[in-house]
Write a structure and sequence with these properties.
Largest sheet: 6 strands, mixed
Radius of gyration: 25 Å
Number of strands: 12
CATH architecture of the largest domain: 2-Layer Sandwich
Order of helices and strands: HEEEHHEEHHHHEHEEHHEEHHHHHEHE
Structural class: alpha+beta
CATH class of the largest domain: Alpha Beta
Number of helices: 16
Helix content: 40-55%
């Protein structure tokens, strides 16, 4: 009884306080305007070079006590040979699976003893080894990085294990409509271009890759003239150059011809497949995935415009696609767009997960929003709010040394001046509604759109043809993501 007597007055007091606050609260008919933008306070990144050609790029952030180091090779999945897709990803993954002087477990233990974790990966136009440690531990941490890059063992047992793990992952991924739809959409858009294949490889290509393939890729592409050491954190230029020379100064290129980098894509139309829309039939799956892939130019002068357009269209909760498809109609919990701006030319991906029976309606709604960007300027109030969200996300993203290094790496891989990092917010602020409309008119028109819907086709195929699309229908087992001239297995 005592507990009851105490609890009742306390709850009453809390309720009374809440009601009093509610009475004083001012109702709003619309969201408050965005607050003032904060000034970006980072030093201009610097660049130096070793005699062997290695570039050393530093974004200094004094007094944080941490440094992120990324050794970036300017070659990645676009170098995969025909019928060997996934080679660059396997090679990069093996860099942290043992070297000539350390086993895989020794690499991990030494990194952990420094308070960090050694990681390696590959992507479009890049492969990297990275680690984040306290500033006093950067010297031994770079010793681990250089050992991984210059002296990988590429043990057959490790290759077999990583290949098996990747194949197991693909079995799970290929059972998901969203994965298959995105891979097929890129194949439709890029066709025979190296960007058109799955960077992780396929169930058919991975078993073909041999250890000699991995060694050959490493000898050709892992060379100092094709590499950039990206550093971000509590470090100065002199120390950065000194440590780079100590660890990478003796790195020499193998006696093989240097890699030839593909040229930027001026027009995707001749490269893409003639098919513009595809249905991937996956009977009995509970949901469908709707994926659009649209061409965007190589990273350059239009970079800021593309980023703002993407934020307006679908990159966060208040974007047009999310408002229209999720909030107003309740057709999806997962809807959005992503700008995949690669060095040679990229794509704007729109991905929506929905009920099978709603797939055709979603396709129509996405088409309508794209047409709207082409037809009319973005209202100023909406543009200001979207810019504020984008700039805020950028500012938060570079608060850590890892985020700062990643932002710098984007510029390095794109071949843009590293000084652009400091001017990023200014560039975003200068984007106008007219810039967005011109970009949309140039790149997001109906002729460039590739559409893939994966799901139980019996529930949406007829309605989808009513949207004006004439999709090619494929069974999941018939899909071939390596062919240059189509998607159907021979």
């Amino acid at each position: 009884m005592t507990a009851t007597r105490v609890a009742v007055p306390l709850c009453g007091a809390l309720l009374g306080a809440a009601l009093a606050l509610g009475a004083r609260a001012q109702p709003f008919d619309r969201p408050p305007p965005p607050g003032p933008l904060r000034t970006l306070n980072i030093a201009t990144p610097t660049e130096q070079r070793l005699p062997n050609g290695l570039r050393v790029v530093l974004a200094a952030r004094p007094a944080v006590g941490l440094v992120t180091a990324q050794l970036v090779l300017l070659s990645g999945s676009e170098t995969d040979p025909p019928r060997r897709t996934g080679l660059a990803t396997l090679a990069a993954g093996l860099l942290t699976k043992g070297t000539l002087t350390r086993s895989a477990s020794a690499q991990a233990r030494e990194a952990e003893s420094l308070g960090g974790a050694l990681a390696s990966s590959a992507g479009w136009n890049q492969s990297q080894v990275s680690i984040t440690v306290t500033a006093p531990q950067l010297d031994p941490a770079l010793a681990l990085v250089v050992d991984a890059v210059m002296r990988p063992r590429f043990a057959q047992a490790e290759l077999d294990r990583l290949r098996t793990q990747t194949l197991d992952g693909l079995k799970v991924a290929y059972a998901q409509p969203g994965t298959l739809a995105q891979l097929a959409a890129d194949r439709l858009l890029f066709g025979a271009h190296p960007y058109g294949h799955p960077p992780e490889g396929t169930p058919a290509s991975l078993p073909r890759i041999t250890r000699s393939d991995v060694v050959g890729l490493h000898r050709q592409h892992y060379r100092p003239g094709n590499a950039v050491l990206v550093l971000a954190g509590d470090l100065d230029d002199a120390t950065a150059l000194q440590l780079a020379a100590k660890h990478f100064g003796r790195w020499k290129a193998a006696a093989v011809p240097p890699p030839k980098h593909p040229v930027p894509i001026d027009d995707l139309a001749p490269l893409g497949l003639s098919t513009r829309s595809v249905v991937i039939d996956m009977p009995k799956v509970e949901q469908a995935a709707v994926v659009f892939a649209l061409p965007v130019p190589a990273l350059g002068a239009d970079r800021a415009t593309a980023a703002v357009l993407n934020t307006v269209l679908g990159s966060d909760f208040s974007s047009r696609l999310n408002q229209e498809i999720r909030i107003q109609r309740g057709l999806s919990y997962g809807v959005g767009s992503q700008l995949d701006a690669r060095r040679l030319g990229g794509a704007l991906h729109i991905v929506v997960q929905t009920r099978n029976g709603s797939a055709a309606e979603v396709v129509t709604l996405v088409q309508t929003e794209l047409d709207r960007l082409v037809a009319a300027p973005v209202p100023q109030a909406e543009l200001a709010a979207r810019k504020a969200a984008l700039i805020g996300n950028f500012g938060r993203g570079i608060e850590t040394t890892t985020g700062l290094a990643n932002a710098l790496r984007v510029l390095v891989v794109a071949g843009l001046p590293v000084s652009d990092l400091r001017h990023r917010i200014d560039a975003l602020m200068k984007v106008t509604s007219e810039d967005i409309q011109r970009f949309a008119d140039r790149h997001l028109g109906a002729d460039g759109r590739r559409v893939v819907v994966a799901g139980d086709a019996a529930e949406f195929e007829a309605a989808l043809r009513g949207t004006g699309l004439s999709p090619v229908k494929l069974g999941r087992e018939a899909l071939d993501l390596e062919r240059d001239d189509g998607l159907t297995a021979r």
